[in-house]
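To: structure subgroup
Subject: Chain for Friday's discussion

All,

I'm putting the inputs and outputs inline so they're searchable in the archive.
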Amino acid sequence: MADTPAFARGLASLGWSSDWETKQLDAAVAGTPGRVVRHDGVKVLVSDGDFLVHATFARSMSLAVGDWVLVQNETVSGVLERSSKLERDNLDAGPQVIAANIDLVLVVFGADRPLRRRKVLRFVAFAWDIGAQPVVVLSKTDLLPDGGELVDELRSWIGDVPIIETSIETGQGLDEVFAVLAGQTGTLIGESGAGKSSLVNALMDDEVAWVGDVRETDSKGRHTTSHRELHLLPGGGMIIDNPGIRALGLSSEGDGVEQLFSDIEDLAAQCRFRDCAHRSEPGCAILAAVASGAIDRDRWLSYRHFVDEQSESASRADAKDFLASVQKEASAVRKARETRDAPDL
């Protein structure tokens, strides 16, 4: 085993609390608790706050950086139930969990490019969807003489979600980022080239994440982080750096859209009909608010777009579950027929 950094001592330094004590597996699963701080494919690096161990795990286990696990004889013997998880779509194998037990999602956008409303809303809603708190980070503010207009624009879109203006060049906002991450586990999502890896390096005061070139034509960068790792921040708190996520789908079971558009959701209760679809029905409180200007039309269109996306996601999930049940039933019938027709020996 190897020592962990000097500023990290004990499970508490990794976010362990009495809540996790109650989630420990039953007595039949033995092992010492620790947290996955790096995933190396066939092994995971696990820390108990004092020591590190490379542990093997069964193929049936789906482990991610940030997971709390039990380790016995350098083998993962159990995984504690997650409080949140960050997934990305894998077309061949389905959703892949890439980080777990996240408290905060730092949604990073660069001030060196135009902000797109729907993309900002999607990232913020996604953070709530996975069970974490979003914090919007506006990076590269040193490139603008006054970023106030951008902040005002963001505020009109996302309401009370915290916004932190940062600059790696001047150090602006880094203390605020440290403050929100104190005692918390955070991760970063955002557009390519927005400066996520540079922010991690600045927080760690070390080159822990690869930084790639940004094209001058469109301010786009390459996905430079090729692995996932949990970094302990000097003075407390943790950050998970992870490979870029190309697509963020909104879950039909998440409440990100409901939280982001709570004003519109509240109005729905005032519609004349309980099953109002908010399209063209008489007595629709939402349409009346849009017509009067009380609700911005673009905001309403974004809300409708995300709700439709959630409905499509639910339909796909139902179809997938139905197909799986049909295949399972067909397999059972086939096995029963093979057993019945098998010759007696």
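Points worth raising on Friday:
The chain has three domains: 2-81, 87-241, 261-345.
Residues 261-345 form a domain with the Ribonucleotide Reductase Protein R1; domain 1 fold (CATH 1.10.40.50).

D.
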